[in-house]
């Protein structure tokens, strides 16, 4: 598997990059790809089917100058920015393989990601408990052996084509969690384990270095070769014609 550690200057380009890489693999094949990126600027990203007004405080975002964009995959609405590490997996779908269905792919990928995070966090906290909750949330126990509800530090989403899928997500490492409640509403859909908790009582930071998380994920996925050719023209075209447009970002 190849890897790409590349952050573009704008939110639109970073979202376009994931879609362009999926399209490129669908056309050209390959052994799969792991990408990392992290934004220095705050912006809201709604899932493909989200209603913007339902999930986002649009007025607050406008006042703060924080743009609202839509991604090509499902899942819920998130706030991006400093202290948030993003990863993207482009994986080949094989008939009868572990990625053959949405549910099977969720399970297979999240098990590997959990392995990577557990290996890293237990270097600092040997008794840490990591669990996958909901469909594709990764959570941590607030205290060892406690019965308190698990706290979420990673959310993920999936988009599938005929031969390849895109599975991407975020890790809250050192994020300004207080900003989330100021810009995002309570989600219209939430997993049972959330139990109606506010953003402040539901989310947490991992407090791990980004480089350490990248290293563990690369090891788990066997991403050893650097991607040499990036479809920059396709990325620029998607960013220009789709990801900066009101027609796409506010389609629902």
Please supply descriptive tags for the structure shown above:
globular; alpha/beta; three-stranded mixed beta sheet; BirA Bifunctional Protein, domain 2; single chain; 23% strand; 252 residues
Structural description of this entry:
This protein has helices spanning 11-28, 52-55, 58-64, 102-121, 178-183, 199-202, 210-221, 232-243, 246-249; strands at residues 2-5, 33-37, 43-46, 68-70, 78-80, 84-92, 130-133, 137-140, 151-160, 164-172, 225-226. The chain is α/β, with parallel strands linked by helices. It has a single domain (2-97, 156-249), classed as BirA Bifunctional Protein, domain 2 (2-Layer Sandwich). An 8-stranded mixed sheet has the order 7-8-9-10-6-2-1-11, sandwiched between helices. Helix 1 (11-28) packs across helix 8 and helix 4 packs across helix 7. The longest helix has 20 residues, at 102-121.
Offer a quick outline of the entry.
It is built from nine helices and eleven strands. By secondary structure, the protein is α/β, with parallel strands linked by helices. It has one domain (2-97, 156-249): BirA Bifunctional Protein, domain 2, CATH 3.30.930.10.
Can you lay out the helices and strands and say which pair or pack?
Layout: E1 2-5, H1 11-28, E2 33-37, E3 43-46, H2 52-55, H3 58-64, E4 68-70, E5 78-80, E6 84-92, H4 102-121, E7 130-133, E8 137-140, E9 151-160, E10 164-172, H5 178-183, H6 199-202, H7 210-221, E11 225-226, H8 232-243, H9 246-249
Parallel strand pairs: 1-2, 1-11, 3-4
Antiparallel strand pairs: 2-6, 3-5, 6-10, 7-8, 8-9, 9-10
Helix pairs in contact: 1-8, 4-7
């Amino acid at each position: 598997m190849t890897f790409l550690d590349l952050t573009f200057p704008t939110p639109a380009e970073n979202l376009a990059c994931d879609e362009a890489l999926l399209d490129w693999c669908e056309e050209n094949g390959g052994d799969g790809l792991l990408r990392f990126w992290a934004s220095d600027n705050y912006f809201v990203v709604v899932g493909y089917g989200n209603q913007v007004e339902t999930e986002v405080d649009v007025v607050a975002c406008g006042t703060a100058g924080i743009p609202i964009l839509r991604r090509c995959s499902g899942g819920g609405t998130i706030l991006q920015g400093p202290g948030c590490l993003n990863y993207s997996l482009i994986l080949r779908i094989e008939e009868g393989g572990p990625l053959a269905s949405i549910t099977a792919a969720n399970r297979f990928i999240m098990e590997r990601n959990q392995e990577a995070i557990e290996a890293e966090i237990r270097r600092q906290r040997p008794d840490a408990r990591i669990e996958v909750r909901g469909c594709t949330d990764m959570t941590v126990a607030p205290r060892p052996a406690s019965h308190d509800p698990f706290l979420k530090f990673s959310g993920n989403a999936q988009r599938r084509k005929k031969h390849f899928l895109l599975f991407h997500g975020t890790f809250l490492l050192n994020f300004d969690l207080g900003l989330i409640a100021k810009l995002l509403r309570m989600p219209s859909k939430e997993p049972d384990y959330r139990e109606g908790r506010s953003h402040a009582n539901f989310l947490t930071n991992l407090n791990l270095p980004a480089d350490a998380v990248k290293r563990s994920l690369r090891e788990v996925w066997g991403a050893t070769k650097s991607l040499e050719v990036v479809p920059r023209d396709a990325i620029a075209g998607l960013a220009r014609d789709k990801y900066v447009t009101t027609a796409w970002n506010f389609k629902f």
